Amino acid sequence: MKYTTQVISCIFALTVLISITEKCIAANDPSLIAHFPMELSGNLITDVITGQSFVVQNNFGRPENVAGAEGNALRLDGYSTFSTTQFNVQNLSTTGLTVSIWCALETYPVISPDNLSYTATYIAGNMRDDLKTGFAFTLNNTGKYAFEIYINGVKTTCYDAYENLPKYEWANLTATVNTTTREVKLFRNAQLVAKVSFAGNSINTGNNVFMIGKSFSDDKVGIFRNNIINGLVDDIRIFSKTFADNEITEQSTQNPADLTIPKSRHERDIQRPVFHGLPATNWTNEPHGLVYYNNKYHIFFQKNANGPYMARLHWGHLSSSDLLNWTEEKIAIGPGASYDIKGTWSGCLFKDDVYTGGIPNIFYTGVDYAKASINKAVPIPSDDKLIDWIKDNSNPLIPNKPVGLSDDFRDPYIFKFNGELYMIVGTSKNGLGATTLHKYNSSTQKWSNDGTIFYQAAGSNFGTFWEMPVIVPMANNKWLFLVTPLGSLNGVETLYWVGTINSNGTFNPYSSTPKEVELGTMGKQGYGLLSPSVMQKDGKTIAIGIVPDKLPSQTNLNMGWAHLYSLPREWSLDLNNNLIQIPFSETSNMRVPTMAFNSVDTDINGTLSLAPASGKAVELEGNFTISTATRFGFNVRKNGNNAIQIYYTPSANKITVNTTNISKLSNDAGVFNGIYESVIPQTLPLGSNLKLHIFIDHSIMDIFINNMYAFSLRVFPTDTNAEALEVFSDGGATHINSVKAWRLNPRQGITDTNSPDFRNKIKIYSTGDSIVYENVPLHSRINIYNLDGQKIISINSDQNSGLIPLKKNQTYLIEIINDDLKYSTKILM
User: Which residue(s) pair with 34 in the sheet?
Assistant: First the structure.
């Protein structure tokens, strides 16, 4: 056994990999007529037998090589990565064939998201059903894998009848075809898993076009391909003879199957946040199951790992030590059982000393193309990190919606009251949004399903269907109840009620009229924070919700991802049962001291720069005395005369975010048209204070007002250099009690043992009239300040080294930022 090292991705991340001596099947056999080792050269892969190279199609034009079973493997993204190659098919025998491939899957292909289908796509092959020729390793959306081949014009399918193709691990597939014995055999990791007889005597070898990662068809969901493999493919070999069973020996892997998304995939994307939760790529939606367990925060969420669109939902999983720095874990659960074959939809995590043995369990909606059911999954017994899950043998817990409901039935949430366990589920009854109530019977270990209603909308203004119900205890024996209605007066937005729980487990609100979680109309029509997941820890109620991007499908295709989550909010109730929302207290740990601005007790009439604070990830906190000025607030993401304005208008008691003066991706045409505004429910007289607390993280803003109101919104500036910050007052002076601003670095003070300190590699020195930089990570931001804190140069470096002319006899502060790492130094010219 030997050890080798490889540099993986950017920022000098160093990973030690174990390499075991390869026992490859007949690597030098003269019958080897095609060999694709999947080693990329730019965007090309090569058949080493012919020397021909072929383009790998990819959404970003940058296909990804990652550590493979043998050398490097091609990372397929599930919707755009594939290659149309060729091999010398004329050298292929019509009497004997052996084909081998390495693969490791993250998920199974989508194929048909809305209908039960057993259609398969290709892992690799040249099979043409229209011509009745060729062969392929195939895979369908349930995980059934096969080797298929045409012999005398008849398709022969050899498949594993007992197991699906495993996920998150390497599988070495080998198929042999022998026209003498008239058998096709399929091996996985050198073990015979299937064999089938055929009647013919001649292989229809087909043409020389060989697909890797998809079949010849171009099946789509909208504009997204849905028949592409999601995972790793490595080392494809085609032999013009039949290997004997004893010649197919187990092959050891050089590297474990690492399905982590390469960081390089989105490294150039200025819209990706750095301290908001989201998966590494592709599509996400509602978070659920926010929990703190074994010294880690976990949040689970709706995920399509096969592309930036909604289809075939899985439960994704993020973990964090602080709710700000997130690591994506492997998928927790996905479609597969008869009751959830279409998708594992939303639900909750719940733990109870008796019911779950003190361990969080997943409760989720399973959908089977006909109906929804409520189901459970549990972590494997040895897993204290909530990584590996198995579905409960008793599923479904509730097999169908109760009688009398007029619509769907989904999103279970469990709570405990007076020692009893209850479950509420989102639904509709008589055209109004509602939640059903189910009680757990500890004697029978069953949940009731008699149609009892926990609570229902008092009118159509509050929605025709309720999604993602949540009920949590608050102070003074009050309960906070939240739903995200469809079809409410303002479309989709999250509403809440405050009340008590009746003795039978139903809800009794203090008022039948709900209130909005987002300030005023900031969340109308599905904008802003939706479907929050809520947890309670150390006396705090913490909420994180989805904040959709509302971009056109083509933009999501170009970006390669969709949606993200809000900044964590801390919730409480005031005496009038209004929701109080403030930022999660630990956000202050992200502040970079050297990139801060602070001003107190001063008047402003016009604009004031907040340098040295600047950037795409910043925090602003302004405490103002309301005056007769026309408006006051902040200019953010500013470059030249263009900026996003966030301000308060005293005469209208209104908060406005005006994005019409910047170049941006369009995501709100016809709804907000770039101007987001809402009246503050509380009247603020002249002389009173207004606090604006703003967090900006690339394409998301979380804005808090007077430690009471909050809203999140998505804005997508396209100007890479738009980073300046200002405070302003128009139409008169405004008194600033205090204005503070910080650049934010979520990894401030965190030591990452997986990434060596890149500061030791960077070299900065003076030539007398220029600064020279060397060994800087690609796509770094280089900022140069004078000793007064004024930024005088800011560039994005696409080279590892370079030269920047500067004035002599001055001292400068040089700052280099790459993702979550920062280097700074002073230098005298």
Answer: 238
For 338, what's the count of Cα atoms within 13 Å in the CB-facing half-sphere?
Answer: 4
Q: Would the CATH topology of 274-400 be identical to that of 586-744?
A: no
Residue labelled with tokens 């691990």: 169
How far apart (Å, rounded) are the C-alpha atoms in residues 679 and 659? 18
Residue 587 — φ and ψ, nearest 5°?
-60, -25
| Cα dihedral: 161, 163, 164, 166 (round 10) | -150
Once rounded to an integer, what is the mean pLDDT over residues 414-423?
98
Which residues on neighbouring strands pair with residue 735, listed in sequence order?
603, 625
Report pLDDT digits (tens) over 701-742. Answer: 999 999 999 999 999 999 999 999 999 999 999 999 999 999
- The mean pLDDT of 663-671, rounded to a whole number, is 96
**Any idea which residue has 């990190």 for tokens?**
385
CA–CA distance, 82 with 357 (Å, rounded to integer): 46
Residue among 794, 744, 806 at smallest CA distance from 594: 744
Q: Residue 23: its pLDDT value, please? A: 36
Residue 722 CB coordination number (10 Å)? 21
Note the pTM of the prediction, 2 decimals: 0.87
CA proximity to 395, closest of 339, 349, 445: 339
259: which residues sit within 8 A by CB, 6+ positions away?
104, 106, 168, 231, 232, 330
Instruction: Domain 274-400: give its CATH code.
Output: 2.115.10.20
**Which phi and psi (to 5°) does residue 90 adopt?**
-65, -20
User: Which string of b and e fits 491-507 if b means at least 16 CB within 10 Å?
Assistant: ebbbbbbbbebeeebeb
Name the CATH code of domain 586-744 (choices 2.60.40.1120, 3.40.50.800, 2.60.120.560, 3.30.70.100).
2.60.120.560
Beta strands 282-293 and 561-562 are parallel
Q: How far apart are CA 543 and CA 579, in angstroms?
A: 12
Question: Which residue matches tokens 């190659």?
Answer: 85
Residue 808's pLDDT band (cuts 50, 70, 90):
confident
pLDDT in tens, 498-510: 999 999 999 999 9
Could you give the CA distance from residue 38 to residue 47 in angstroms, rounded to a whole number?
Answer: 9
Element (H, E) at 366: strand 361-367
Decide if pLDDT at 68 tops 70. Answer: yes
Q: What is the mean pLDDT of the chain?
A: 92
CB 785, CB 771: distance < 8 Å: no
What is the CATH topology of the domain spanning 26-247?
A: Jelly Rolls (2.60.120)
Which tens digits make up the pLDDT trace of 284-343? 999 999 999 999 999 999 999 999 999 999 999 999 999 999 999 999 999 999 999 999
The amino acid sitting at 50 is T
State how far the Cα of 621 lies from the Cα of 739, in Å rounded to an integer: 6
Calculate mean pLDDT across residues 667-690.
96
Which residue is listed with tokens 């965190």? 750
Q: What percent of the chain has pLDDT over 70?
A: 93
Other residues' Cβ atoms within 10 Å of the Cβ of residue 511: 11
- What is 758-828's CATH number, 2.40.170.20, 2.60.40.10, 2.60.120.260, 2.30.22.10? 2.60.40.10
CA distance 470 to 524: 20
pLDDT tens readout for residues 574-624: 999 999 999 999 999 999 999 999 999 999 999 999 999 999 999 999 999
What pLDDT sits at residue 382? 84
Could you identify the residue written with the tokens 């130094």? 825
What fold does the segment set 411-517 form as a domain?
Answer: Tachylectin-2; Chain A (2.115.10)
Q: Domain map of the chain by residue range?
A: 26-247, 274-400, 411-517, 586-744, 758-828
Res. 67 pLDDT band, cuts 50 70 90: very high
DSSP 280: S
Residue type for position 489: L
743 DSSP β-pair partners: 618
| pLDDT given at position 454 | 98
Give the tokens for residue 239. 């032999």
